Amino acid sequence: MLLTKGNAGIVLGLMAVAVLLWAMLAERPAEVYEYRLDNGLKILVQPDRRSPVVVSQVWYKVGSGYEPAGITGISHMLEHMMFKGTDELKPSEFSAIIAANGGEDNAFTSYDYTTYFQRIASDRLELCFKLEADRMRDLIIDEQELTKERDVVAEERRWRYDDNPQSLTLEKFMATAYPEGPYHHPVIGWMDDIQSFTTAAARDWYRRWYAPNNATLVVVGDVEPEAVHELAEKYFGPLQPSSDITPAPSQPADAQTEPRYVEVKAPAKLPYVLMGYKVPSLMTAGDRDEAYALEVLSGVLDGGSSARLSRDLLRGKQLAASAGASYDLIQRLDGFLSLNAVPVAGVTTEQLIEALKEEVARLQQEPVSETELSTVRAQVVASDVYQRDSVFYQAMELGTLETTGVGWQVQQEYINRVEQVTPQQIQAVARKYLTPERLTVAVLIPQDANAKISQSANAKGAAR
Is 67 part of the annotated catalytic residue set? Predict the structure, then answer.
């Protein structure tokens, strides 16, 4: 990119904003206090006293990536059941109590973890601990409630995946990219498994993984760390650890030697292309500099309206109606550098795939200019600083880093490591990882509304 007077001003302005924001963040104390109870529960506390609010999160080291065939989606199913009552609480009473105290609560499941959280006035934190400790080891899994939730989850699967063509394409993409292993099946599970969950399976999964020695309690907000520690000792301290916890499933060796391709035929208005190159995460990278280089590379492709995909495919060549890129820096196993796009009328998916590959080839052939890299760094830094202004995001960051095994301490090095990424490092990871033998491509082919969903693939295990 040529440095004109106009875009030079934009670059310098972004850099100035990023530096100012980072300076503001650095001035605000962000010390994290770590404790561990005798039963194995880890506690992370980060004070943030700008408002009288606290976020409390319990992170369990279990998700869909831990599930064997036959009970896929059981982690997500158990997330639903965690709101269905204990010896002390009736079904749905947990959330009703939090709401009556002016708070909000929810939960989410991923491949690597299941998390429960409350956002509430800081003087009500004790209530959260009391409720969470109660369901950590004393959950009731009732046959009638499970039957009702099976139907709820099955319907959730229908509207999130079966009736959502882009989500369905992602599901088939993952199954094709990973013929076996922890990330093969969707977090919500396959429909056959969802409809056949038993109380025995749910109870076994709960007893095995839901225990203080497999959990991290994260608290961020207007709190005193030692007071949080004392409250945690009071409510979580008496809980017994689990003796059934086993090491998390590892990623099997992948024999992929050529690109994998899957077509998904489903009712849709527009075609869609999803491409992904297998790359290391921060957890799996032998050299963490490579992971940070991939993080910045993603920003070069999709870091705002001036990024390459938007500039070249949308406005320049006018091949795509939308285009994006993403990279999961923090996860337990290897992930993807992904590119996605929707073609404009008259452009084929084959043309769009070639255009995306050309963007990758350019990264391999030409180092990113210092001017372009400065813009990307500024945007990445500004985005991170703005996110950290959220108490919830701060807790999310700590919990994700700790639960995936990276370690919460990495939180404090992110911006510095991003700012140190060089054009040569970006080019090096592009050449090393964005190669044909690491590539999986999924293409959505629109069908009439009455057409049945189908898929064809040249990879074993691409479709269930």
Answer: no
- State whether residue 314 is helix, strand or coil: helix
Angle between helices 288-301 and 370-388 (to 10 degrees): 100
Three-point CA angle 313, 426, 299, nearest 5°: 45
Q: How far is residue 28's CA from residue 299's CA, in Å, rounded to a whole number?
A: 27
Please check whether residue 71 is in contact with residue 193, taking contact to mean a CB–CB distance below 8 angstroms: yes
Cross-strand pairs, 273: 341, 443
| Longest alpha-carbon distance in the chain | 69
**Active-site annotation holder among 67, 79, 171, 402:** 79
For residue 278, the cross-strand partners are 336
Rounded to whole angstroms, the Cα distance separating 15 from 12 reads: 5
Q: Residue 259 is inside which H or E element, if any?
A: none
Cα separation, 400 vs 380, in Å, equals: 19
Q: What is the pLDDT along the chain (464 residues), one digit of tens a residue?
A: 333 333 333 333 433 434 444 444 444 447 999 999 999 999 999 999 999 999 999 999 999 999 999 999 999 999 999 999 999 999 999 999 999 999 999 999 999 999 999 999 999 999 999 999 999 999 999 999 999 999 999 999 999 999 999 999 999 999 999 999 999 999 999 999 999 999 999 999 999 999 999 999 999 999 999 999 999 999 999 999 998 898 888 988 778 899 999 999 999 999 999 999 999 999 999 999 999 999 999 999 997 788 999 999 999 999 999 999 999 999 999 999 999 999 999 999 999 999 999 999 999 999 999 999 998 888 888 888 888 889 999 999 999 999 999 999 998 899 999 999 999 999 999 999 999 999 999 999 999 876 555 555 444 333 33
DSSP state of 86: B
The Cα–Cα gap between 138 and 86 comes to 6
Q: Are 223 and 391 in contact (CB under 8 A)?
A: no
Please give the torsion angle defined by the CA atoms of residues 185, 188, 190 and 195, in that order, rounded to the nearest 10 degrees.
Answer: 150
**Phi and psi at residue 456, to the nearest 5°:** -130, 145
Both tokens of 15, joined, read: 């850099």
Instruction: Determine the 3-state secondary structure of 269 from DSSP.
Output: coil
The distance from CA 463 to its chain's CA centroid, rounded to whole angstroms, is 23
First to last CA, the chain: 46
The Cα–Cα gap between 42 and 218 comes to 8
Q: In terms of DSSP H, where are the helices of 158-276?
A: 165-177, 191-194, 199-209, 225-235
